[in-house]
Amino acid sequence: MTNEKIKICKMCFKEISDKAKKCPYCQHWQNKWSLITFHPLFAMIPMIIMLGIFLTLWGGLFEKIFDPGEPFSKHKNSIIIEQTKMKFGQNYLVKAENILLL
């Protein structure tokens, strides 16, 4: 290595350029910041943030699309059910009789 400063790799202990961020022999990152920023999990942080924003926006949209409407509790005293019959079987018939609306 001519006129170039050298350093020793922290992993394989071979001589490498002083400017090297990664060892050309063992591919080990030479400083901790490079090790952190080029790690695959570091790339996932922006994706997790974008997913959180998307889910927050989707939640607001979900409430608008599937509006539960007016609560039934306001009207439960105005309906009287006197007799109901439910039959389960081959015909799957559900029948309600004598429903009075007040």
Entry keywords:
2 helices; two-stranded antiparallel sheet; alpha+beta; 31% helix; rod-shaped; 102 residues; 2 domains
Shape: rod-shaped
How many helices? 2
Strand content: 15-25%
Mean pLDDT: 77
Estimated radius of gyration: 35 Å
Classify the helix fraction into a percent range.
25-40%
Q: State the low-pLDDT regions, or none.
A: none
Q: What summary fits the major beta sheet?
A: 2 strands, antiparallel
Instruction: Please provide the count of β strands.
Output: 4
Into how many domains do the coordinates divide? 2
Task: Note the topology.
Elements: E1 6-8, E2 15-17, H1 32-37, H2 40-65, E3 79-86, E4 94-101
Antiparallel strand pairs: 1-2, 3-4
Could you give a quick summary of the protein structure above?
This protein has 102 residues and is an alpha+beta fold.
Note down, in words, how this protein is organized:
The chain is of the alpha+beta class and 102 residues long. The chain has two domains: 6-65, no CATH class; 72-101, no CATH class. Helix content is 31%, strand content 22%. It has helices at 32-37, 40-65, and strands spanning 6-8, 15-17, 79-86, 94-101. The strands form two sheets. Strands 1-2 form a two-stranded antiparallel sheet. Strands 3-4 form a two-stranded antiparallel sheet. Strand 1 and strand 2 form a beta hairpin. The radius of gyration is 35 Å and the shape is rod-shaped. The termini are far apart.
